[in-house]
Design brief:
By secondary structure, the protein is of the alpha/beta class. It has ten helices and ten strands. It has one domain: P-loop containing nucleotide triphosphate hydrolases (Rossmann fold), CATH 3.40.50. Strand 7, helix 7 and strand 8 form a beta-alpha-beta unit.
Amino acid sequence: MEMLTVSDLCLSFGGLQVLSDVSFNVEQGELFAIIGPNGAGKTSILNSISGFYHPNKGGVHLEGKEITHLSPDRRAAMGLGRTFQNIALYRGMSVLDNIKLGAHVHLRTGLLSSLIYWGKPHREEMELRREIEEEVIDFLEIEPIRKLPVGSLAYGLQKRVELARALAMRPKILLMDEPVAGMNAEETEDMARFILDIKEERNMTIVLIEHDMKVIMDISDRVLVLNFGQTLAEGKPEDVQRHPEVVKAYLGEKKAQDGHLSTTVG
């Protein structure tokens, strides 16, 4: 079943064409990666899918329902979760409170009743906390730090907390923007393992942007390659890695004669 369909997406800012007729679909339970040189339009695609950008042309469908013109919060409530390249957490708040914010789109308690807090709001809060602690915090192995302020954590742990907050949204599709950027080798290995566990144990659909080619080649089911806002190639990782136009876009004309894209290219 197609979970996400992007059709003929065009996006421009002033006279700058950022995306030109980009189309792809993502199947249920698939890990779909988007790669390309800097400025290729990768993050613009995620921003168009999640509602931060509004395309000039084209459409976005989630489970067959058009969401092109919906607000980001409506899309989140329908099942779109998102992590960001630059960590977007509240540094002075605890790990647990940051994660709880991710589930707020599913809370049923209204504003007036939540001000009272007792009764239904209190029960809903306790149920939410129990769900997060049992299904998210334990899953991502961050129990020892759940009461600490996010600002006191190492960079790799902050990225894991941001992933936890996205999972607390109970997404059908998880959009990830460079989840291992800036991490050391050990942190990268841990994050790649968690991403695979999310896909395999939760059967979650994932759309991933990443510059670490080794991670892409190791964990992706299919890869879309962008260059200057246009689709350059799409297919299985091993096929895309050897595609002459992809190698050329990353390494230039001369090195492309080797016909292979190194997994260390960023």
